[in-house]
Design goal:
- By secondary structure, the protein is of the alpha/beta class.
- The protein has two domains: about 1-35, no CATH class; about 40-185, Luciferase-like domain (TIM Barrel, Alpha-Beta Barrel).
- The chain contains seven helices and seven strands, in the order αβββαβαβααβαβα.
- The chain has helices spanning about 1-10, 45-55, 65-85, 105-115, 120-130, 145-155, 175-185; strands at about 15, 20-25, 40, 60, 90-100, 140-145, 160-165.
- The strands form two sheets. Strands 3, 4, 5, 6 and 7 form a five-stranded parallel β-sheet that branches.
- α2 (about 45-55) crosses α3 (about 65-85).
- The longest helix is centred in the middle third of the chain and has 18 residues, at about 65-85.
- The chain is globular.
- The two termini are about 35 Å apart.
Length: about 190
């Protein structure tokens, strides 16, 4: 799939005939004026997906994977696969549930309810456990500006090239704005 998609985004056409997938374009799909080479990022966290992503994709989007899982498992695996394939180091875009708030306990409870669904999916359970957590909320970043900034630094130190926050609205508009302001400052 990634091979066919990459060909399509780079050339505007696909002519791929694999064991499980055939992809051909009856007419060129290139959009006039569009630049070729749209980055392909994959939501990969398991060993096989990380290997294939390192070989073929431009980066990964791990979700519910904390700094420990990134540093010890995810980043080394995808980076080694990219290196073995002669490709540049991939982008590691960590998707993080997080919010700046002073009402940590109440927000943590709401986030726990919101993320409980992921605790039934094996790939997310593994990522949470590799992060040192037992529940999805354990990898959420919830706290004041100082605490959240420290956690963002931990993600960067673990190998994340980018940190993207989700769920910033859960504590209301004022805390969402605080979160966005802090993330803007950290982005420079």
């Amino acid at each position: 799939f990634l091979t066919a998609l990459k060909e399509l985004t780079e050339t505007g056409a696909a002519d791929f005939h694999g064991e499980l997938l055939t992809a051909t374009t009856p007419i060129p799909a290139r959009v006039a004026g569009a630049e070729a080479g749209v980055p392909l990022l994959v939501a990969a966290m398991g060993p096989q997906a990380l290997r294939v992503s390192g070989e073929l994709a431009d980066g990964i989007l791990p979700y519910l994977a904390g700094p420990r899982a990134l540093a010890e498992h995810i980043v080394p695996a995808v980076t080694a696969a990219a290196e073995a394939a002669g490709r540049p180091a991939p982008r590691i875009v960590a998707l993080v549930n997080g919010v700046v708030t002073d009402d940590v306990d109440a927000v943590r409870e709401r986030v726990a309810e919101q993320l409980a669904f992921y605790e039934k999916i094996p790939s997310y359970i593994r990522a949470i456990e590799l992060s040192g957590g037992r529940q999805a909320v354990d990898v959420a970043v919830i706290g004041n500006e100082k605490a959240v900034a420290a956690e963002v630094r931990r993600y960067r130190d673990a190998g994340a090239t980018e940190v993207v926050f989700a769920g910033t609205e859960i504590a209301g508009d004022a805390d969402r704005r605080r979160t966005w302001a802090l993330l803007g400052e950290l982005a420079g």
